[in-house]
Specification:
Blueprint (H helix, E strand, L loop, with lengths): L11 E8 L2 H12 L2 E8 L2 E8 L2 E8 L2 H5 L5 E7 L3 H10 L8 E4 L3 E7 L5 E7 L14 E7 L3 H12 L2 E4 L9 E5 L2 E6 L12 E7 L3 H10 L3 E9 L3 E7 L5 E7 L2
Length: about 260
């Protein structure tokens, strides 16, 4: 499987579930993706869950604290972008119109991070690695492989991320900017921005992760058996790709991605 020991700056390096029922989430994702579970103490009565695929970290999860829940934040997946200097990147994000709800801080000796809310309201995290580089496997079945930004102001988002990370954001060949926008970090395709026509009124701007599976239909059916809600049934997109959009039993949204032969 594709193993990763270091993530290039400007690429997604960590994917983390914020949930209201950590034990239920461990059962759901462990059953769906075959992830093994390793819990690390965080404090009195709290653990940080590592989801592992083989011997590599594939994702993580934690229980949302009351302060987060009281603000109406639903269960969700956090996406982290690798940076060389979290303080510098956070300051630049603020200059570009972003917000830092918790400042910049160290995560023990693992790394330094900040939560950023972009000008359109979508949140993501900056990660300056120290002892922890990020997920150790991606782009393999049952691992993270892609991300989409869903926002009501695509051009504002485009300008923000291009200036913050140096991403190249552009439509497909022969398409205009009203269509799906592709995101490149250097020469690496890492994500996209969904067309405005797919943004439902009232849905806040957000990033959503994709997890690769061998069969999107089978995985979606299994997820539904495990208590997931299917928001978008498996469908073909582009050439040779099949996706589905789901919410886990606690309503954290994620997508499935499969190559179609």
């Amino acid at each position: 499987m594709p193993q990763i020991d270091k993530h290039a700056p400007g690429t997604f390096c960590w994917v983390e579930l914020a949930t209201t029922d950590q034990d239920a989430a461990k059962h759901f994702y462990g059953s769906l993706f075959g992830w093994s579970i390793v819990d690390y103490p965080m404090g009195p009565g709290e653990v940080y869950t590592m989801f592992r695929l083989g011997e590599r970290d594939a994702a993580a999860g934690y229980t949302m604290r009351e302060a987060e829940r009281s603000q109406g934040v639903p269960p969700h997946w956090n996406l982290y972008v690798a940076v060389e200097d979290a303080d510098q990147a956070a300051a630049r994000a603020v200059e570009l119109g972003g917000k830092l709800p918790a400042g910049v801080f160290d995560v023990f000796t693992n790394g330094r991070m900040s939560v950023v809310i972009d000008p359109t309201g979508a949140s993501f995290c900056l990660w300056q690695p120290n002892q922890t580089q990020g997920i150790g496997v991606m782009g393999e079945n049952n691992s993270y492989c892609w991300a989409d930004l869903i926002t009501g102001d695509r051009m504002a988002a485009k300008q923000f991320y291009e200036k913050l990370f140096g991403w190249k954001i552009f439509p497909g060949e022969g398409k205009d900017e009203s269509t799906y926008l592709h995101i490149m970090a250097g020469e690496q395709g890492i994500a996209g921005i969904q067309p405005g026509s797919m943004h439902k009124p009232g849905v806040p701007s957000h990033w959503t992760p994709y997890f690769m599976v061998a069969d999107a239909d089978a995985a979606a059916a299994k997820a539904k058996e495990l208590g997931a809600t299917v928001y978008a049934a498996p469908m073909n997109v582009g050439e040779g790709l099949r996706i589905a959009v789901l919410a886990d039993p606690q309503r954290a949204v994620f997508s499935l991605f499969a190559n179609v032969k």
